[in-house]
Every structure is written in C-alpha cells, then in structure tokens.
Amino acid sequence: MAAPRIDFYVLPDRQENSRALIACRLADKAYSLGHTVYILTASEAQAAALDDLLWTFRQDSFIPHERYPLASEESSPVLIGTASPAAVNARVLINFTFTLPDGFERFERVVELVDQQPEVLAASRERFKQYRERGFIPESHKL
Question: Which has the closest alpha carbon to 6: 108, 79, 83?
Fold first, then answer.
C-alpha cells in the first residue's frame, strides 16, 4: 500500500466556522469524485455541528453522510465521528482534531485544516513535524 498523501490547507483567517466550512467543501469534493471520507472530530459536539453543517453549508449540495459508529448496516460515503480512524474503512481522512490520528497510514489521503487561531497553528505545526518524523512529506496549500 502506498503512503498517504498528506495535505495541510491553511486558511487566511481565524473565523470560528472557517475550518468547518472547508471540511464540508472538501468532503463534498471527495464525494463528487467517488471517494469515501471519514471526518475525525475531537468531540461529539464537533461531530454534531459538522453533521448539521453538511446539510446546510451549500444550498445545492447533497452529501450522504452519517455519524460513526453507524446506526445502520449500510455505510454512507461520508462518516463523521470521534472513533479512531484505524477502525474506519474510507479513502480520505479529514482530521478535525489537534492530534496525529491513529491509523492515518491506512488512508490514501489525509487532510489537515489550519486557520490562524494560535492554538490551531501550534497544534498544526506539531502534527506537520510528526508526519515528517515518520517519513511522510506533507504539503501546505494556502487558501
């Protein structure tokens, strides 16, 4: 299995909802390309907020999604949860936490979201360093 592609998307502002909105946009794009996605959140409150936002962030979009662990047997293409990504079968991992996710190596692509809030920047720099220490070459994209 090939090493995952790791991308840090750096937002120019520190608005409260900017990371959540870009997570929704990236999940929408991945879904439209036929990829499965797991959005890893740090809390149930974050998972619930992203769950709600995926319904409303864009008027003309529909992204089939559900919370993980699943209530049903059939899995949606986009899952949101706090469970370790090591247990989830998806191609794209969107990390909405401040820590390096367990099992990230299993994914084809890992997406890190960075805004200009000091605690987000500090945690992102640390994760960038941790990926490099493990032999991965993350890329940064300024939005």
Answer: 108
Label residues 54-69 b or e (16+ Cβ within 10 Å = b): beebeeeeebebbbbe
Compute CA distances 61 → 15, 29, 57, whole Å.
Answer: 23, 10, 8
Query: 43 is written with which tokens?
Result: 């809390």
pTM: 0.94
pLDDT of residue 72: 64
Separation between Cα atoms, residue 109 and residue 91, nearest integer Å: 7
CATH architecture of 5-142: 3-Layer(aba) Sandwich (3.40)
pLDDT bin (cut points 50, 70, 90) of residue 71 is low
- For the chain, give every domain's residue range: 5-142
- Report which of 47, 56, 39 is spatially closest to residue 112, judged by C-alpha positions: 39
